[in-house]
Design a protein that fits this description.
homodimer; about 240 residues; alpha/beta; Rossmann fold; DNA polymerase, domain 1; 2 domains; about 10% strand
Chain lengths: ~240, ~240
Protein backbone atom coordinates (compact mmCIF):
# COMPACT_ATOMS: atom_id res chain seq x y z
CA UNK A 1 0.00 0.00 0.00
CA UNK A 2 0.94 3.64 -0.38
CA UNK A 3 0.51 6.17 2.38
CA UNK A 4 0.15 9.47 0.64
CA UNK A 5 -0.74 11.63 3.61
CA UNK A 6 -0.48 11.31 7.38
CA UNK A 7 -2.81 13.16 9.70
CA UNK A 8 -1.94 13.94 13.29
CA UNK A 9 -4.32 14.79 16.07
CA UNK A 10 -3.00 17.63 18.27
CA UNK A 11 -4.12 17.58 21.92
CA UNK A 12 -2.49 14.66 23.77
CA UNK A 13 -0.94 13.39 20.53
CA UNK A 14 1.51 16.18 19.75
CA UNK A 15 1.32 18.10 23.00
CA UNK A 16 0.00 17.66 26.52
CA UNK A 17 -3.55 18.83 27.10
CA UNK A 18 -5.55 16.52 29.30
CA UNK A 19 -3.09 17.02 32.15
CA UNK A 20 -4.08 20.71 32.18
CA UNK A 21 -7.76 19.78 32.38
CA UNK A 22 -6.95 17.15 34.99
CA UNK A 23 -5.17 19.70 37.16
CA UNK A 24 -8.15 22.03 36.84
CA UNK A 25 -10.49 19.21 37.85
CA UNK A 26 -8.41 18.81 40.98
CA UNK A 27 -8.57 22.52 41.86
CA UNK A 28 -12.29 22.49 41.10
CA UNK A 29 -12.95 19.55 43.46
CA UNK A 30 -10.97 21.35 46.17
CA UNK A 31 -12.94 24.57 45.62
CA UNK A 32 -16.23 22.71 45.98
CA UNK A 33 -15.13 20.52 48.89
CA UNK A 34 -16.94 22.66 51.52
CA UNK A 35 -20.18 21.96 49.65
CA UNK A 36 -19.97 18.62 47.89
CA UNK A 37 -18.47 15.16 48.13
CA UNK A 38 -15.42 15.25 45.82
CA UNK A 39 -16.39 11.84 44.41
CA UNK A 40 -19.64 13.35 43.19
CA UNK A 41 -18.05 16.29 41.41
CA UNK A 42 -16.51 14.69 38.30
CA UNK A 43 -19.56 12.66 37.24
CA UNK A 44 -21.83 15.69 37.67
CA UNK A 45 -19.47 17.91 35.70
CA UNK A 46 -19.23 15.32 32.93
CA UNK A 47 -23.04 15.14 32.75
CA UNK A 48 -23.26 18.93 32.40
CA UNK A 49 -20.56 18.91 29.71
CA UNK A 50 -22.47 16.30 27.70
CA UNK A 51 -25.72 18.25 28.05
CA UNK A 52 -23.97 21.45 26.94
CA UNK A 53 -22.00 19.94 24.06
CA UNK A 54 -24.65 20.87 21.50
CA UNK A 55 -24.53 24.52 22.60
CA UNK A 56 -20.90 24.99 23.56
CA UNK A 57 -18.80 22.41 21.66
CA UNK A 58 -15.33 21.50 22.89
CA UNK A 59 -12.72 23.71 24.49
CA UNK A 60 -11.80 25.70 27.55
CA UNK A 61 -14.64 28.24 27.38
CA UNK A 62 -17.40 25.64 27.15
CA UNK A 63 -15.70 23.62 29.89
CA UNK A 64 -15.60 26.69 32.13
CA UNK A 65 -19.28 27.49 31.60
CA UNK A 66 -20.05 23.86 32.45
CA UNK A 67 -17.94 24.10 35.62
CA UNK A 68 -19.90 27.17 36.70
CA UNK A 69 -23.28 25.54 35.97
CA UNK A 70 -22.31 22.38 37.83
CA UNK A 71 -21.02 24.36 40.81
CA UNK A 72 -24.29 26.27 41.12
CA UNK A 73 -26.27 23.05 40.89
CA UNK A 74 -24.09 21.04 43.28
CA UNK A 75 -24.10 23.75 45.94
CA UNK A 76 -27.82 24.41 45.63
CA UNK A 77 -26.97 27.98 44.69
CA UNK A 78 -24.83 28.57 47.77
CA UNK A 79 -21.56 29.04 45.91
CA UNK A 80 -20.38 32.65 46.20
CA UNK A 81 -19.61 35.06 43.39
CA UNK A 82 -15.98 35.11 44.51
CA UNK A 83 -15.76 31.34 44.15
CA UNK A 84 -17.26 31.61 40.67
CA UNK A 85 -14.62 34.18 39.82
CA UNK A 86 -12.05 31.59 40.94
CA UNK A 87 -13.51 29.20 38.36
CA UNK A 88 -13.15 31.85 35.65
CA UNK A 89 -9.58 32.36 36.82
CA UNK A 90 -9.01 28.63 36.17
CA UNK A 91 -9.89 29.34 32.53
CA UNK A 92 -7.39 32.18 32.31
CA UNK A 93 -4.73 29.96 33.88
CA UNK A 94 -5.47 27.13 31.43
CA UNK A 95 -5.12 29.53 28.52
CA UNK A 96 -1.77 30.68 29.85
CA UNK A 97 -0.24 27.21 30.06
CA UNK A 98 2.68 26.95 27.66
CA UNK A 99 2.39 24.25 25.01
CA UNK A 100 4.51 21.23 25.96
CA UNK A 101 5.29 18.78 23.20
CA UNK A 102 5.17 15.08 24.02
CA UNK A 103 8.49 13.32 24.00
CA UNK A 104 9.67 12.32 20.51
CA UNK A 105 7.13 14.49 18.68
CA UNK A 106 9.46 17.13 17.25
CA UNK A 107 11.86 14.57 15.71
CA UNK A 108 9.09 12.33 14.37
CA UNK A 109 7.14 15.14 12.75
CA UNK A 110 10.25 16.75 11.31
CA UNK A 111 11.44 13.41 9.90
CA UNK A 112 8.14 12.48 8.29
CA UNK A 113 7.59 15.95 6.83
CA UNK A 114 10.66 15.48 4.64
CA UNK A 115 8.98 12.78 2.56
CA UNK A 116 5.22 12.94 3.25
CA UNK A 117 2.26 15.27 3.19
CA UNK A 118 1.43 15.91 6.83
CA UNK A 119 -1.88 17.24 8.05
CA UNK A 120 -2.75 18.49 11.49
CA UNK A 121 -6.38 17.59 12.16
CA UNK A 122 -7.75 18.73 15.45
CA UNK A 123 -11.10 19.55 16.93
CA UNK A 124 -12.13 22.04 19.53
CA UNK A 125 -12.14 25.73 20.00
CA UNK A 126 -10.65 27.56 16.99
CA UNK A 127 -9.10 30.20 19.17
CA UNK A 128 -7.48 27.76 21.64
CA UNK A 129 -6.20 25.50 18.87
CA UNK A 130 -4.73 28.23 16.68
CA UNK A 131 -2.76 29.70 19.52
CA UNK A 132 -1.41 26.27 20.52
CA UNK A 133 -0.39 25.47 16.94
CA UNK A 134 1.42 28.80 16.67
CA UNK A 135 3.18 28.20 19.99
CA UNK A 136 4.13 24.60 19.22
CA UNK A 137 6.75 25.52 16.64
CA UNK A 138 5.48 22.65 14.47
CA UNK A 139 3.21 24.61 12.10
CA UNK A 140 5.73 24.71 9.25
CA UNK A 141 5.92 20.93 9.06
CA UNK A 142 2.24 20.57 8.26
CA UNK A 143 1.02 21.12 4.72
CA UNK A 144 -2.55 21.52 5.91
CA UNK A 145 -4.07 22.46 9.23
CA UNK A 146 -7.71 21.59 9.81
CA UNK A 147 -9.55 22.72 12.92
CA UNK A 148 -12.93 21.00 12.99
CA UNK A 149 -15.86 21.21 15.34
CA UNK A 150 -16.26 17.41 15.30
CA UNK A 151 -14.06 14.62 13.93
CA UNK A 152 -16.43 12.03 12.54
CA UNK A 153 -16.48 9.98 9.33
CA UNK A 154 -18.20 12.75 7.38
CA UNK A 155 -15.67 15.36 8.53
CA UNK A 156 -12.71 13.18 7.49
CA UNK A 157 -14.38 12.42 4.16
CA UNK A 158 -14.74 16.16 3.46
CA UNK A 159 -11.17 17.03 4.45
CA UNK A 160 -9.61 14.20 2.44
CA UNK A 161 -11.70 14.96 -0.63
CA UNK A 162 -10.79 18.65 -0.42
CA UNK A 163 -7.11 17.75 -0.48
CA UNK A 164 -7.46 14.99 -3.06
CA UNK A 165 -6.27 12.23 -0.73
CA UNK A 166 -7.96 8.82 -1.25
CA UNK A 167 -8.98 7.48 2.20
CA UNK A 168 -7.15 4.20 1.48
CA UNK A 169 -3.90 6.13 1.24
CA UNK A 170 -4.43 8.05 4.45
CA UNK A 171 -3.05 7.33 7.90
CA UNK A 172 -4.33 9.11 11.00
CA UNK A 173 -2.32 9.16 14.23
CA UNK A 174 -4.07 10.05 17.46
CA UNK A 175 -4.95 9.23 21.03
CA UNK A 176 -8.73 9.12 20.65
CA UNK A 177 -10.36 5.98 19.29
CA UNK A 178 -13.61 7.86 18.84
CA UNK A 179 -12.24 10.90 17.01
CA UNK A 180 -8.99 9.77 15.36
CA UNK A 181 -9.04 6.04 14.79
CA UNK A 182 -12.49 4.55 14.22
CA UNK A 183 -13.84 7.08 11.68
CA UNK A 184 -10.66 6.80 9.58
CA UNK A 185 -10.65 3.00 9.73
CA UNK A 186 -14.33 3.04 8.70
CA UNK A 187 -13.40 5.01 5.57
CA UNK A 188 -10.79 2.39 4.66
CA UNK A 189 -7.76 4.28 5.95
CA UNK A 190 -5.22 3.35 8.58
CA UNK A 191 -5.78 4.44 12.19
CA UNK A 192 -2.75 4.51 14.45
CA UNK A 193 -3.78 4.63 18.05
CA UNK A 194 -1.15 6.05 20.40
CA UNK A 195 -2.84 6.20 23.80
CA UNK A 196 -2.14 9.06 26.20
CA UNK A 197 -1.99 8.22 29.88
CA UNK A 198 -5.05 10.39 30.54
CA UNK A 199 -8.12 10.32 28.34
CA UNK A 200 -11.35 12.24 28.76
CA UNK A 201 -14.26 9.80 29.23
CA UNK A 202 -16.03 11.16 26.14
CA UNK A 203 -13.11 10.11 23.94
CA UNK A 204 -12.82 6.62 25.39
CA UNK A 205 -15.99 5.42 23.64
CA UNK A 206 -15.45 2.62 21.15
CA UNK A 207 -12.60 0.79 22.85
CA UNK A 208 -14.15 -2.62 22.22
CA UNK A 209 -15.01 -1.94 18.57
CA UNK A 210 -11.48 -0.72 17.92
CA UNK A 211 -9.83 -3.91 19.08
CA UNK A 212 -11.44 -5.78 16.17
CA UNK A 213 -11.46 -3.13 13.44
CA UNK A 214 -9.24 -3.78 10.43
CA UNK A 215 -6.76 -1.04 9.65
CA UNK A 216 -6.24 -0.16 13.32
CA UNK A 217 -2.78 -0.31 14.86
CA UNK A 218 -1.80 0.45 18.41
CA UNK A 219 1.60 1.87 19.19
CA UNK A 220 3.18 2.72 22.52
CA UNK A 221 4.95 5.83 21.28
CA UNK A 222 4.70 8.30 18.43
CA UNK A 223 8.35 7.60 17.57
CA UNK A 224 7.26 4.19 16.21
CA UNK A 225 5.12 5.73 13.44
CA UNK A 226 7.87 5.99 10.75
CA UNK A 227 8.72 2.28 11.10
CA UNK A 228 5.03 1.36 10.80
CA UNK A 229 4.68 3.48 7.65
CA UNK A 230 7.68 1.71 6.15
CA UNK A 231 6.38 -1.71 7.11
CA UNK A 232 2.93 -1.06 5.62
CA UNK A 233 4.35 0.33 2.40
CA UNK A 234 6.77 -2.54 1.90
CA UNK A 235 3.84 -4.92 2.47
CA UNK A 236 5.71 -7.10 4.96
CA UNK B 1 -11.17 45.16 -13.85
CA UNK B 2 -12.17 41.54 -13.26
CA UNK B 3 -13.76 40.36 -10.06
CA UNK B 4 -12.87 36.72 -9.82
CA UNK B 5 -14.18 35.99 -6.35
CA UNK B 6 -16.55 37.68 -3.93
CA UNK B 7 -16.27 37.17 -0.19
CA UNK B 8 -19.16 37.73 2.18
CA UNK B 9 -18.98 38.32 5.88
CA UNK B 10 -21.69 36.41 7.77
CA UNK B 11 -22.92 38.01 11.04
CA UNK B 12 -24.93 41.16 10.29
CA UNK B 13 -24.11 40.89 6.58
CA UNK B 14 -25.98 37.70 5.66
CA UNK B 15 -27.98 37.21 8.84
CA UNK B 16 -28.92 39.15 11.95
CA UNK B 17 -26.56 38.75 14.88
CA UNK B 18 -25.93 41.99 16.75
CA UNK B 19 -29.64 42.28 17.56
CA UNK B 20 -29.34 39.04 19.56
CA UNK B 21 -26.38 40.46 21.49
CA UNK B 22 -28.22 43.73 21.91
CA UNK B 23 -31.25 41.99 23.39
CA UNK B 24 -28.98 40.12 25.77
CA UNK B 25 -27.33 43.39 26.82
CA UNK B 26 -30.79 44.67 27.69
CA UNK B 27 -31.63 41.63 29.82
CA UNK B 28 -28.21 41.86 31.44
CA UNK B 29 -28.68 45.51 32.41
CA UNK B 30 -32.07 44.64 33.88
CA UNK B 31 -30.59 41.73 35.86
CA UNK B 32 -27.92 44.00 37.34
CA UNK B 33 -30.22 46.97 37.95
CA UNK B 34 -30.59 46.24 41.71
CA UNK B 35 -26.81 46.59 41.99
CA UNK B 36 -25.53 48.96 39.35
CA UNK B 37 -26.42 52.03 37.34
CA UNK B 38 -27.53 50.69 33.92
CA UNK B 39 -25.49 53.40 32.19
CA UNK B 40 -22.36 51.98 33.78
CA UNK B 41 -22.97 48.39 32.69
CA UNK B 42 -22.19 48.49 28.94
CA UNK B 43 -18.85 50.33 29.19
CA UNK B 44 -17.68 48.01 31.97
CA UNK B 45 -18.72 44.93 30.02
CA UNK B 46 -16.94 46.23 26.92
CA UNK B 47 -13.77 46.81 28.93
CA UNK B 48 -13.88 43.22 30.24
CA UNK B 49 -14.47 41.88 26.72
CA UNK B 50 -11.43 43.76 25.41
CA UNK B 51 -9.29 42.51 28.30
CA UNK B 52 -10.45 38.93 27.68
CA UNK B 53 -10.15 38.96 23.89
CA UNK B 54 -6.65 37.50 23.94
CA UNK B 55 -7.84 34.56 26.05
CA UNK B 56 -11.37 34.01 24.81
CA UNK B 57 -11.61 35.39 21.26
CA UNK B 58 -15.00 36.24 19.75
CA UNK B 59 -18.31 34.48 20.22
CA UNK B 60 -21.10 33.71 22.64
CA UNK B 61 -19.05 31.69 25.13
CA UNK B 62 -16.38 34.34 25.59
CA UNK B 63 -19.08 37.01 25.80
CA UNK B 64 -20.85 35.04 28.53
CA UNK B 65 -17.70 34.57 30.59
CA UNK B 66 -17.10 38.32 30.28
CA UNK B 67 -20.69 39.03 31.41
CA UNK B 68 -20.13 36.87 34.50
CA UNK B 69 -16.79 38.52 35.35
CA UNK B 70 -18.25 41.99 34.91
CA UNK B 71 -21.27 41.14 37.04
CA UNK B 72 -19.08 39.91 39.91
CA UNK B 73 -16.95 43.05 39.66
CA UNK B 74 -19.83 45.51 39.34
CA UNK B 75 -21.73 44.04 42.29
CA UNK B 76 -18.64 43.80 44.47
CA UNK B 77 -19.23 40.04 44.66
CA UNK B 78 -22.81 40.41 45.86
CA UNK B 79 -24.42 38.85 42.79
CA UNK B 80 -26.00 35.50 43.66
CA UNK B 81 -25.28 32.13 42.11
CA UNK B 82 -28.85 32.03 40.82
CA UNK B 83 -28.33 35.32 39.00
CA UNK B 84 -25.14 33.96 37.49
CA UNK B 85 -27.10 30.94 36.32
CA UNK B 86 -29.46 33.41 34.63
CA UNK B 87 -26.48 34.81 32.72
CA UNK B 88 -25.53 31.30 31.57
CA UNK B 89 -29.15 30.82 30.52
CA UNK B 90 -28.75 33.92 28.30
CA UNK B 91 -26.00 32.00 26.48
CA UNK B 92 -28.25 29.01 25.94
CA UNK B 93 -31.01 31.29 24.67
CA UNK B 94 -28.62 33.03 22.27
CA UNK B 95 -27.49 29.70 20.88
CA UNK B 96 -31.11 28.71 20.35
CA UNK B 97 -32.02 31.77 18.28
CA UNK B 98 -32.93 30.72 14.76
CA UNK B 99 -30.81 32.22 11.99
CA UNK B 100 -32.66 35.08 10.29
CA UNK B 101 -31.36 36.15 6.92
CA UNK B 102 -31.27 39.86 6.17
CA UNK B 103 -33.69 41.03 3.54
CA UNK B 104 -32.47 40.45 -0.02
CA UNK B 105 -29.64 38.11 0.97
CA UNK B 106 -31.01 34.83 -0.40
CA UNK B 107 -31.71 36.26 -3.88
CA UNK B 108 -28.43 38.17 -4.10
CA UNK B 109 -26.28 35.24 -3.05
CA UNK B 110 -28.15 32.80 -5.28
CA UNK B 111 -27.84 35.14 -8.25
CA UNK B 112 -24.13 35.84 -7.84
CA UNK B 113 -23.29 32.17 -7.23
CA UNK B 114 -24.41 31.36 -10.77
CA UNK B 115 -21.51 33.25 -12.32
CA UNK B 116 -18.91 33.86 -9.57
CA UNK B 117 -16.80 32.10 -7.01
CA UNK B 118 -18.34 33.01 -3.67
CA UNK B 119 -16.57 32.71 -0.35
CA UNK B 120 -18.03 33.00 3.09
CA UNK B 121 -15.39 34.54 5.34
CA UNK B 122 -16.38 34.94 8.94
CA UNK B 123 -14.65 35.19 12.26
CA UNK B 124 -15.64 34.04 15.68
CA UNK B 125 -16.41 30.85 17.44
CA UNK B 126 -16.08 27.84 15.10
CA UNK B 127 -18.94 26.04 16.76
CA UNK B 128 -21.36 29.02 16.67
CA UNK B 129 -20.49 29.85 13.08
CA UNK B 130 -20.75 26.33 11.69
CA UNK B 131 -24.16 25.82 13.14
CA UNK B 132 -25.39 29.16 11.76
CA UNK B 133 -24.01 28.39 8.30
CA UNK B 134 -25.73 25.01 8.32
CA UNK B 135 -29.00 26.58 9.46
CA UNK B 136 -28.85 29.45 6.97
CA UNK B 137 -29.58 27.29 3.95
CA UNK B 138 -26.91 29.24 2.03
CA UNK B 139 -23.96 26.84 2.40
CA UNK B 140 -24.35 25.33 -1.08
CA UNK B 141 -23.90 28.70 -2.77
CA UNK B 142 -20.43 29.20 -1.32
CA UNK B 143 -17.46 27.51 -2.94
CA UNK B 144 -15.32 28.05 0.13
CA UNK B 145 -16.17 28.67 3.75
CA UNK B 146 -13.47 30.15 5.96
CA UNK B 147 -13.96 30.57 9.69
CA UNK B 148 -11.08 32.61 11.05
CA UNK B 149 -10.12 33.70 14.53
CA UNK B 150 -9.29 37.21 13.28
CA UNK B 151 -9.89 38.94 9.95
CA UNK B 152 -6.85 41.09 9.33
CA UNK B 153 -4.67 41.73 6.29
CA UNK B 154 -2.51 38.69 6.95
CA UNK B 155 -5.54 36.41 7.29
CA UNK B 156 -7.03 37.62 3.99
CA UNK B 157 -3.67 37.25 2.28
CA UNK B 158 -3.44 33.62 3.42
CA UNK B 159 -6.99 32.74 2.39
CA UNK B 160 -6.71 34.35 -1.04
CA UNK B 161 -3.34 32.75 -1.74
CA UNK B 162 -4.67 29.33 -0.72
CA UNK B 163 -7.47 29.66 -3.24
CA UNK B 164 -5.33 31.25 -5.94
CA UNK B 165 -7.29 34.52 -6.02
CA UNK B 166 -5.18 37.65 -6.70
CA UNK B 167 -6.19 40.33 -4.16
CA UNK B 168 -6.83 42.81 -7.00
CA UNK B 169 -9.55 40.52 -8.33
CA UNK B 170 -11.24 40.06 -4.97
CA UNK B 171 -14.27 41.86 -3.58
CA UNK B 172 -15.28 41.60 0.07
CA UNK B 173 -18.79 42.52 1.24
CA UNK B 174 -19.40 43.15 4.92
CA UNK B 175 -20.66 45.40 7.68
CA UNK B 176 -17.39 45.85 9.55
CA UNK B 177 -14.88 48.41 8.34
CA UNK B 178 -12.27 46.95 10.63
CA UNK B 179 -12.67 43.29 9.66
CA UNK B 180 -14.16 43.27 6.17
CA UNK B 181 -13.31 46.46 4.35
CA UNK B 182 -10.03 48.07 5.39
CA UNK B 183 -7.80 44.96 5.31
CA UNK B 184 -9.08 43.98 1.85
CA UNK B 185 -8.68 47.51 0.49
CA UNK B 186 -5.13 47.56 1.92
CA UNK B 187 -4.32 44.44 -0.11
CA UNK B 188 -5.54 46.16 -3.27
CA UNK B 189 -8.96 44.52 -3.41
CA UNK B 190 -12.43 46.04 -3.34
CA UNK B 191 -14.23 46.49 -0.02
CA UNK B 192 -17.97 46.90 -0.14
CA UNK B 193 -19.27 48.31 3.10
CA UNK B 194 -22.93 47.57 3.80
CA UNK B 195 -23.58 48.95 7.28
CA UNK B 196 -25.91 47.18 9.67
CA UNK B 197 -28.07 49.33 11.92
CA UNK B 198 -26.30 48.00 15.00
CA UNK B 199 -22.54 47.62 15.19
CA UNK B 200 -20.43 46.46 18.11
CA UNK B 201 -18.07 49.26 19.22
CA UNK B 202 -15.02 47.06 18.56
CA UNK B 203 -15.95 46.78 14.86
CA UNK B 204 -16.57 50.49 14.40
CA UNK B 205 -12.89 51.34 14.51
CA UNK B 206 -11.52 52.89 11.34
CA UNK B 207 -14.54 54.83 10.18
CA UNK B 208 -12.52 57.92 9.30
CA UNK B 209 -9.77 56.04 7.48
CA UNK B 210 -12.35 54.18 5.41
CA UNK B 211 -13.95 57.30 4.04
CA UNK B 212 -10.74 58.12 2.20
CA UNK B 213 -9.43 54.66 1.28
CA UNK B 214 -9.36 53.81 -2.42
CA UNK B 215 -11.27 50.66 -3.37
CA UNK B 216 -13.91 51.21 -0.70
CA UNK B 217 -17.57 51.48 -1.67
CA UNK B 218 -20.51 52.01 0.59
CA UNK B 219 -23.90 50.55 -0.28
CA UNK B 220 -27.20 50.85 1.50
CA UNK B 221 -28.32 47.32 0.77
CA UNK B 222 -26.75 43.98 -0.18
CA UNK B 223 -29.09 43.81 -3.18
CA UNK B 224 -26.98 46.55 -4.84
CA UNK B 225 -23.86 44.37 -4.98
CA UNK B 226 -24.52 42.74 -8.40
CA UNK B 227 -24.93 46.14 -10.08
CA UNK B 228 -21.68 47.37 -8.49
CA UNK B 229 -19.83 44.28 -9.74
CA UNK B 230 -21.14 44.91 -13.23
CA UNK B 231 -20.24 48.58 -13.09
CA UNK B 232 -16.68 47.89 -11.91
CA UNK B 233 -16.11 45.19 -14.51
CA UNK B 234 -17.39 47.30 -17.35
CA UNK B 235 -15.08 50.08 -16.14
CA UNK B 236 -17.76 52.77 -16.31
Amino acid sequence: MTIRAIGFDADDTLWHNENIFSLTHEKYRALLSPYADPAEVDPRLFATEMKNLRHFGYGIKGFTLSMIETAIELTGGRITAREIQTIIDFAHEMREQPVQLLEGVAETVRGLAASRTLMLITKGDLFDQESKIAQSGLADHFHHVEILSEKDEEAYRRVLSRHGVPPREFMMVGNSLRSDILPVAALGGVGVYVPYHLTWAHEREGEERAAEAPGVFRLGHIGEVPALVERLESGV
